[in-house]
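Weekly modeling sync, notes
Attendees: S.R. (lead), two postdocs, one rotation student

Agenda item 3: backlog of single-chain predictions. S.R. asked that every request posted to the team notebook include the full sequence so nobody has to chase files. The rotation student volunteered to paste the first one in as an example of the format we agreed on. Action items at the bottom.

Example entry:
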Amino acid sequence: MNCIHLTQIERYQIYVLRKAGQTQRQIVSVLARSEPTISR
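Predicted structure, as returned to the notebook:
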């Protein structure tokens, strides 16, 4: 299994989107990453 880490920019985007009230599924669709990656 390949491990591809989130970039600092993606981490910041997740932070901003969560602060804005976006759900995990909405963030997954915006960043085009898997749910487990976003939830970690």
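Discussion: group reviewed the output briefly. The mean pLDDT is 88.
Action items: rotation student to repeat for the remaining queue; S.R. to check formatting next week.
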